[in-house]
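Query structure, 137 tokens:
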């Protein structure tokens, strides 16, 4: 009989230790997520502006009689700067996600669609360049 009471006491201690460990781990995870909450990813305040397309849009608007197009452009870029954006000319950017590229329509109210106009920003064709290098060999 003494043998069975020792194994029962060992099993009870093991179960108690398991329960206490589970409660401690759960409490630690709650404290961790309370003091270190998940941070949401927000895009960086960067605006890539295609100045060539913007200039073409302003020129087209000015010839159509909108004399304030140039001033509106300056105000829009100054407003981006005031909101904390870093404004980059697209000709100085190697590559940028579409979320950062600002079109003339986003900067100037009533700007024409300049999607097909020649511009300073052309996304790099990495796949085509790699194929051309491979074909040369």
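Result returned for the query:
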């Amino acid at each position: 009989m003494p043998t069975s009471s020792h194994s029962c006491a060992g099993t009870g201690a093991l179960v108690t230790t398991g329960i206490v460990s589970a409660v401690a781990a759960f409490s630690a995870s709650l404290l961790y997520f309370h003091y270190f909450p998940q941070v949401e990813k927000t895009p960086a305040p960067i605006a890539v502006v295609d100045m060539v397309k913007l200039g073409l849009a302003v020129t087209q608007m000015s010839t159509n009689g909108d004399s304030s197009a140039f001033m509106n452009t300056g105000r829009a870029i100054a407003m981006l700067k005031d909101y904390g954006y870093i404004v980059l000319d697209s000709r100085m950017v190697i590559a940028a996600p579409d979320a950062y590229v600002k079109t003339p329509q986003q900067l100037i109210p009533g700007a024409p669609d300049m999607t097909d106009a020649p511009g300073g920003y052309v996304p790099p064709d990495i796949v085509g360049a790699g194929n051309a290098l491979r074909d040369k060999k």
